[in-house]
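Translate sequence into structure tokens.
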Amino acid sequence: MNLEALFVQNKEQSIEGRYITLEHIEPILQRLNTEKQLKEIGKSVLGKPIYSYNIGSGPIKILLWSQMHGDDSTTTKASFDCFNFFKTNSYESQLYLKSFTIQWIPMLNPDGAALYTRENANLIDLNRDSQEQSQPESQILRSVFETFKPDFCFNLHDQRTIYSVGQTNKPATLSFLAPSYNLECEINTTRLKAINVIAGINEVLQKFIPGQIGRFNDSFNFNCVGDTFQFFGVPTILFEGGHFQNDYQREETRKFLFFAMITAFRLIYENDIVHNRIEDYLNISQNNPVFCDLLYKNIKINYDGKEKIINFAAQYKEEIIDGKVVFNAYIVQIDNLGYCFGHQEFDANGALYSDKYGNFPRLDHLANFCLGDLTFENGLIKS
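Result follows.
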């Protein structure tokens, strides 16, 4: 299967970028609803509809949900690409649909999606509400889980740009986790199935983004949905879309998530998950939060009348302005950077720092400044 060609053929062209709301996806869902596969399964805190889309007639049941966090939109885009593939009449897609019954919740948190926040409208992180079940969105997901009785779960998320793969200077473009089911982080038959799928995904993805696949920490948290569903005996796989070089809109990451999801379906279809691949899984390096978006080195400052050479870092804050996500760079760390990489790095070679306040960078201020004769605007050299 040529994954590159498959992605080009099935990419959903009507959505792109980071800001994906219910209004963006409803027309696509209606277009896919050729045989009444789309159902409203409940409403959000603010009364927005929450949909599920069911496809396939096979014995293996797979449950997917995306945008549990409203600002985790990359997996939503990749999911639409996958379901466009399932709607084709290709030999492969039809094989899968005869093997799987798939239930997909494309946007569990439509209020958070509109606000572009992690939390829902009540400021609750739905991925920490698995036990209290205090929110309508959490109750809807649990009801679907209990009614559908899946054989596998795909928990679809985004991750921040701060993560590297291990101690390397490569970003964790995709990360995975087979969540723990107990405090001891033991591996039982259920968790092993998820581990084996992830090991297979990693084997394929290393051919496309070598060294850019990470593994999340598996500390058990019963308040997290994935940990809870694993505890309930259903193999659950966490997919996390992260940073690819110069891809802040996450369109390249979207492609690799599509590759990962299609590969996961293939591995389950082929039943290529019966072997013990724990060692392969554990050989995937853990995520390490050592990246910043912008790193400035060897900066000369005047501080208390003395010249000093420092480094400092800036991080993009994603802000909704006029219905679009705008990336504004703020200074977040001055010196004491320790072991740190920048997605973009600038060596000032001792040039003097200056801004409208003086000759010293200030935390939480926009990254608008000069280094010698160079002017930086929103963290980048002004052209």
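Note: The chain has two domains: 3-289, 291-381.
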